[in-house]
Design goal:
The chain is α+β, with helices and mostly antiparallel strands. The protein has a single domain, classed as Jelly Rolls, CATH 2.60.120.620. Helices cover 36% and strands 20% of the residues. It contains ten helices and nine strands. The protein is globular, with a radius of gyration of 18 Å.
């Protein structure tokens, strides 16, 4: 896994979670999604393809949050995270990916940092620190399309023009280097947030993304306090290291 991630920026662990293990997680995600849709009805109807902060207190009660905390703090997930991240895995966020309501809405190539960094800063971000998605699909889905190796290299002319819609190009156009990775319920897709990628819509996708990063204040400072477990919950987890790392950083910078 480590070598595959280093070379390509992603890998898949097939069938990591069984159907009976996913059922409770699925129930919690649907509970969150129903509440989130109600409170974000216009955005959901217009263009939404994901939501975030699933472990927060706005849409889930204690029981539902604890299901997600146990999943994130499982040895199974944390052992994989430790092989990918060069330093202590640190909790950042959670996201839920779903199909857009507008069936004509096109998917789009992007690097995650492009929404808050300049082009020059995006290029510099390739040197780290790393942010990694751990994606768990709850239903069989078309998956995701990735450009292998772009977690460590800058865009080609074609990639940059399409991703940033330059010179009349559109970000939904195909890329010659794109590779499709289909996913089944229970698989785990691990991929770098820095790499060029796009989600593939269809089949009522419902995918939970757990975002982990290296222990950097500039990354951890934006984690919402209400998205973190309390000490009692952390003591019950198989591996609370990712949460402990985030809390330690936030306390050190006076943000917790």
């Amino acid at each position: 896994m480590k070598n595959e991630y280093a070379a390509n920026g992603y890998f898949v662990v097939k069938g990591l979670f069984k159907a009976d293990e996913l059922q409770k997680v699925r129930e919690v995600l649907l509970e969150f999604h129903a509440s989130w849709q109600q409170k974000n009805a216009a955005f959901y109807a217009e263009k939404a393809i994901n939501s975030a902060y699933l472990t927060g207190t706005e849409h889930l009660g204690e029981a539902g949050r604890n299901v997600l905390f146990r999943l994130i703090g499982s040895s199974r997930l944390m052992d994989i995270a430790a092989t990918v991240l060069k330093r202590q895995p640190t909790f950042m966020n959670t996201q839920l990916f779903f199909d857009p309501v507008n069936k004509s809405q096109m998917n789009y190539w992007h690097r995650d940092p492009q929404y808050h960094l300049s082009v020059e800063e995006q290029q510099a971000a390739l040197a780290g620190p790393d942010v990694v998605h751990f994606r768990l699909p709850l239903v069989d889905e078309p998956g995701i399309e990735l450009v292998p190796g772009t977690h460590q290299r800058w865009d080609s002319d074609e990639e940059l023009e399409i991703r940033l819609e330059q010179n009349g190009r559109k970000n939904h156009e195909p890329l010659s280097g794109g590779v499709t990775v289909e996913l089944a319920a229970g698989d785990l897709l691990v991929f770098s947030a820095n790499m060029i990628h796009r989600g593939l819509y269809g089949n009522g996708r419902l995918s939970l993304d757990i975002l982990l990063c290296e222990p950097e204040p500039d990354l951890a400072k934006f984690v919402r306090d209400d998205c973190l477990p309390d000490r009692e919950v952390m003591a019950s987890l198989e591996n609370a290291g990712a949460f402990e790392s985030t809390i330690a950083i936030k306390k050190n910078i006076g943000g917790y």
